[in-house]
């Protein structure tokens, strides 16, 4: 009987020792597991009392046997967020995105002061953002988007001065942004407050957010007032369906002022009308009206425009703003006073006299456009139609010797189809080789002085075909070059080199066309004469 009791005692005590061997952090995580009502994929199936530590559990990362990360995204977990996670003192990262978690955020969750990222988007959380969020001095990413949070943002959020990504879109947050929002969160690289019910004026100190990458999205809220000067790319709402994006420049204007301003038509093309708009303070802008756009196309439009808005290069005019509504879309750029490249080469329609571009200016423009396309191609930006590029003549002054000729999307002529690569009529997916062909046509246009459509006797042919015919008939170079370049006859060797580059770019076979990097390098080897 004594032996039996001793054996029973050892067995029970052994079990007790076994159960109690799991450390405190493991016990805290098991409390979190108990708050999960559904785990259809068994993501927490290996979370057991039988382990000494939770470091081998699914979704758990440890450092020096302390839990530093809880990452269980997209596992269809259903339940609430246990306050026990707050007892993980070394916790650095929490990622529970795209689950079915609900309820409020326990204030204890913000107890681990070293927490660097809290990602909860795509759940069913509700309630307010606890004041205790201000305890997280090292927080860099806070993503609560696509939930049902409400209420105002606590002023304590401004104590999270290391925040780089703040994403709160698609919730029911309301009220004004805390005073000092921009001055305190100066490290922000991404700010998305869209699709909430925030109100009040857009804080002027948002202009302090100099580290922004991409856009500040304030759309689909109830904000009012002007867009602050120096605000990085911003999307702000005028009602529920209108948006505006502003580039990082020392200027402030609002949509009402833009729409009331005096406007003059600069040109038309297949994608819209370009206006010269003069605001009350004298600021002049170029506004391209793209026409009607259905709401189902907004995301595609936003993606493409924001890709353009991120371009930062000496050979591109920065996109200043964009406006979107169901009825129309606008792209807003700095106004380029010298007109487009077609006008610079051929003069304005109806005007006989004009000052032709010298060879040195043409070569600078060629090099500038090439550099711009290299920049695009290196970053695999969606194909840019070269037929809608314009170049600004170099201005006199300290920058006149640099490659400051600016390429931008604009209306160049009524011959846009003649800039298109032959295969673009058959192949749906755009290719960089299309740009190279278009660029080759531009080179031919600049060096021959002829339009993309050439009149030959009683017939017409495109400029590339005409050039090929000249080569076949062995016509002298003087018959090919723009007569206005006669004063630069001593540069004929360089002009012939450009002709060869242009013909390579316009090869009927895409595979035989050089890369823009190769083209740009070849042009850079040509000396630019001083005027």
Automatic annotation (TrEMBL):
This is Receptor protein kinase-like protein ZAR1. The lineage of its organism: Eukaryota, Viridiplantae, Streptophyta, Embryophyta, Tracheophyta. Residues 512-531 are annotated as: Disordered. Residues 512-524 have a biased composition (Basic and acidic residues). The keyword Transport does not apply. PANTHER family: LEUCINE-RICH REPEAT RECEPTOR-LIKE PROTEIN KINASE PXC1 (PTHR48007), PROTEIN KINASE DOMAIN-CONTAINING PROTEIN (PTHR48007:SF83). Residues 260-526 form the Protein kinase domain. Pfam families: LRR_1 (PF00560), LRRNT_2 (PF08263), PK_Tyr_Ser-Thr (PF07714), Pkinase (PF00069). Gene3D superfamilies: Ribonuclease Inhibitor (3.80.10.10), Transferase(Phosphotransferase) domain 1 (1.10.510.10). Keywords: ATP-binding, Glycoprotein, Kinase, Leucine-rich repeat, Membrane, Nucleotide-binding, Receptor, Repeat, Signal, Transferase, Transmembrane, Transmembrane helix. Its main location: membrane. GO terms for molecular function: ATP binding; protein kinase activity. It comes from Sesamum radiatum. GO terms for cellular component: membrane. PROSITE patterns: PROTEIN_KINASE_DOM.
């Amino acid at each position: 009987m004594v032996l039996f009791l001793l054996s029973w005692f050892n067995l029970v005590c052994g079990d007790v020792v076994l159960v109690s061997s799991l450390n405190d952090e493991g016990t805290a995580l098991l409390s979190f597991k108990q708050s999960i009502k559904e785990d259809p994929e068994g993501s927490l199936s290996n979370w057991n009392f039988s382990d000494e530590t939770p470091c081998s559990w699914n979704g758990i990362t440890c450092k020096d046997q302390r839990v530093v990360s809880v990452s269980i995204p997209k596992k269809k977990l259903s339940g609430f967020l246990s306050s026990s996670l707050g007892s993980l003192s070394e916790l650095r990262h929490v990622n529970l995105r795209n689950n079915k978690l609900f309820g409020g955020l326990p204030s204890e969750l913000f107890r681990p002061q070293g927490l660097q990222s809290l990602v909860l988007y795509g759940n069913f959380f509700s309630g307010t953002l606890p004041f205790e969020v201000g305890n997280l001095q090292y927080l860099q990413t806070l993503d609560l988007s696509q939930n049902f949070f409400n209420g105002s943002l606590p002023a304590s959020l401004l104590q999270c001065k290391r925040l780089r990504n703040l994403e709160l879109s698609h919730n029911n947050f309301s009220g004004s942004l805390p005073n000092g929002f921009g001055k305190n969160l100066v490290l922000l690289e991404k700010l998305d407050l869209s699709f909430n019910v925030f109100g009040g004026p857009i804080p002027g100190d948002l202009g302090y957010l100099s580290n922004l990458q991409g856009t500040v999205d304030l759309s689909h809220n109830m904000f009012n007032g002007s867009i602050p000067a120096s605000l990085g790319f911003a999307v702000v709402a005028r009602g529920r369906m209108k948006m505006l994006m502003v580039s990082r420049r020392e200027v402030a204007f609002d949509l009402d002022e833009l729409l009331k301003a005096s406007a003059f038509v600069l040109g038309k093309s297949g994608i819209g009308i370009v206006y010269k708009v003069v605001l009350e303070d004298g600021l002049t802008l170029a506004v391209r009206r793209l026409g009607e756009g259905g709401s189902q196309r907004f995301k595609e439009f936003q993606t493409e425009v924001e890709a353009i808005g991120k371009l930062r290069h000496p050979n591109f005019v920065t996109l200043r703003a964009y406006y979107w509504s169901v009825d129309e879309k606008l792209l807003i750029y700095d106004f380029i006073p010298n007109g487009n490249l077609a006008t610079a080469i051929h003069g304005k329609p109806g005007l006989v006299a004009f000052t032709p571009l010298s060879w040195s200016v043409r070569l600078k423009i060629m090099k500038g456009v090439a550099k711009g396309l290299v920049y695009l191609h290196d970053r695999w930006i969606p194909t840019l139609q070269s037929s809608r590029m314009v170049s600004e003549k170099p201005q006199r002054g300290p920058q006149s010797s640099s490659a400051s000729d600016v390429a931008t999307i604009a209306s160049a002529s009524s011959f846009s189809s003649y800039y298109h690569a032959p295969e673009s009529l058959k192949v749906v997916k755009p290719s960089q080789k299309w740009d190279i062909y278009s660029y080759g046509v531009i080179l031919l246009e600049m060096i021959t002085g002829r339009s993309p459509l050439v009149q030959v006797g009683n017939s017409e042919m495109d400029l590339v075909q005409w050039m090929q015919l000249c080569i076949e008939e062995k016509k002298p170079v003087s018959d090919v070059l723009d007569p206005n370049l006669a004063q630069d006859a001593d540069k004929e060797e360089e002009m012939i080199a450009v002709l060869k580059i242009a013909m390579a770019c316009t090869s009927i076979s895409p595979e035989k066309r050089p890369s823009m990097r190769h083209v740009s390098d070849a042009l850079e080897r040509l000396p630019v004469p001083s005027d």
